[in-house]
Amino acid sequence: MSTHPGRILRELCTQGTVAAPGAYNGLIAREVARVGFTATYLSGGALSASSGVPDIGLLTLDRFAERVREIAQHSGLPVIADADTGFGEEEMVRRTVIEYNRAGAASCHIEDQVFPKRCGHVAGKTLIALDHCVDKIKWAAEASDDCSEGDFIVCARTDARSVDGLAAAIERSHAYAEAGADMLFPEGLESEDEFARFADEMNKLCDPAPLLLANMTEFGATPHIHLDRFGELGYHVVIYPVTTLRVTMHAVRHFLADLHEGGTAAEWEESMQSRDDLYALLGYNPTGGGYSFPAP
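The structure assignment produced for this chain is given below.
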């Protein structure tokens, strides 16, 4: 029996801070693995945007679980997956954990926003009651125990920093850890000092101390902080959720504008992935047949 990806991720966290770039499809997941990263992340924002819709909870659990399976299989890496608000109330939170575990994820995070949720770095968010989210986390933890003997990592995300302040984010996160969350994700922190204070408080208040996840997104409330610095501040995992999508779409937009204007893609060949490199990434030999699965 293979080792559960959640157990693999826990072991990686004992060796240093884990960088988990976002992968919103199997091809990017393969590249994340090929470059040498040891974990990857599925962002609800990236999955939604790549599907042509905003990040407001429009996609279903089945759609997310399908993409989790694709990314896990083609990367061979532990996948931390966004589960938004759990796709419903406690019963749906339980189903979410079971379906994500079945799809091969190492972990999922559940946030404390009112549905329909909003991106963590925009204004206008509303939080559900603390005891309501505590119940959701309890159900998630029980589901992990039932479907993976606790190996699946339940991560609790709080958006309280931008709604009620850092003290509220600390209070809520402590309650979520007490309810059974293995990992805590404080969204929208605004400085290194805030990350340091959050980590210090969690290590003092929680026994055992939980894993801590930091979101290093762009164009939001959080300044750019180096991976090594996050490690010094006490964070075990750093996600880069939408970065690959943003880089890709920036290039696509400029290419399409040039093609529309000039009528040829010839000048872009040096900026493209070659056919040979694509086949190498896919583990595909067009003359020998077959391909590697999962990624090498």
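Interim note for the steering committee: The longest helix spans residues 243-262. The chain is about 50% helix and 10% strand.
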